[in-house]
Amino acid sequence: MHHTQVVVVGAGYAGVAAANRIAREGAAHVTVVNPRDEFVERIRLHQHAARTESAVRPLRSVLRPEVALHVGTATRVAGDGVELADGGDLAADRVVHAVGSGAPRSLPGALSVQHLPGATALRDRLDAAAPGTPVTVVGGGLTGIETAAEIAEGRPHLVVRLVASTLAGGLSDAGRDVLRRALAALGVEVREGERVDHVGEGITVDSTSFTVPDLARASGLAVDEAGRLRVDESLRSVQVPTIVAAGDAAATTARWSCQAALPLGIAAATTVLAELRGQEPPAASVGFTATCVSLGRRRGLVQPSELDDTPRGRVLGGRTAALVKEQICRGTVWLARHPSPLFTRAGDLPLVPAWEAA
Ligand SMILES: Cc1cc2nc3c(=O)[nH]c(=O)nc-3n(C[C@H](O)[C@H](O)[C@H](O)COP(=O)(O)OP(=O)(O)OC[C@H]3O[C@@H](n4cnc5c(N)ncnc54)[C@H](O)[C@@H]3O)c2cc1C
């Protein structure tokens, strides 16, 4: 008898949540393909670089026992399976495309905390740096801010500056004030309205943008400008509907974030499960709750948001916010292990971009 096969490509937040949710229903045999047998908590990679927290744990420890793990790299995704770099392939009735995002290529020679090898290389450079070495973090988004703060706190003998064309553009003015005060207290020099176009003296960290692995484009699938898989409202590839995308690798309107990747992973699983039952899947939906920023281990920022991610209400700073953020980081791993739709907030954010709806 043919046993239904689901292959999940990429074991980040979205892929692990999708795999566990599909496997729990017992509707299919689920195999996860990931280049390493470790789960990388990407939201802690700046902490890994600063040696303030670990960001890596065994992948098996976050997967349900019935999920099979294939350590390898997918080189092609198709509607009926996946080709692997080791020459093998895995046949599938449904493929979940969840390869996430990675390092920018905009600043040659700079290091990056966007993926584990980059964060480890940065950690080694920081370990070897003499007192007074300048560390320039480029990019005023949340990753750049968290990275500058973490290094300044963890390595107080280094001189950390943050260069940002805009500082935390998505936050309220009150939120930005909390950030500026915390960065100043940590001794981070913030240069707003400036750009960096080459790597200078000391250590440079590029946090300007995310990029997506080339896998979907190289597989000949319809992608957006960033290389994310173009999907319908149930996260199915517009071209090959047996491929379902989730997380940063799916072309949705949700901010590239762990906060969206987890519910998108659960939504991708809901689509796969509905189709395996012969039902029409519901439209996927994501609702944001808050933007939570860690500023070293002792400070943080919690900015509540509307479901569509626009900031609202009063911001929380200081040690309480640091504790809230730490609990959220722990909660993300728990939710990936126990992915129930009860833990996602359904928003009214239209997930399919305008070009697709038109
Ligand atoms: C330092 C830092 C701090 C962050 N902080 C926050 C935060 O506070 N809140 C928040 O919401 N977001 C945060 N983010 C963003 C968040 O980490 C990402 O948006 C999130 O990880 C996306 O999840 P994902 O499951 O889509 O992909 P990822 O977590 O990137 O996982 C993708 C997986 O796919 C694997 N993969 C890639 N290519 C292949 C292939 N060809 N074959 C097989 N496997 C493959 C990768 O190795 C990886 O394991 C932060 C990011 C960084 C770098």
Automatic annotation (TrEMBL):
Q: Does the record bear Cell membrane in its keywords?
A: no
Q: Which domain of life is it from?
A: Bacteria
Q: Which UniProt keywords apply?
A: FAD, Flavoprotein, Oxidoreductase
Looking up Gene3D superfamilies in the UniProt record yields: 3.50.50.100
Boundaries of every FAD/NAD(P)-binding domain copy: 5-252
InterPro entries hit by this protein? FAD/NAD-bd_sf (IPR036188), FAD/NAD-binding_dom (IPR023753)
List membrane-spanning regions.
none
Q: Which family does it belong to?
A: Belongs to the FAD-dependent oxidoreductase family.
What is this protein called in UniProt? FAD-dependent oxidoreductase
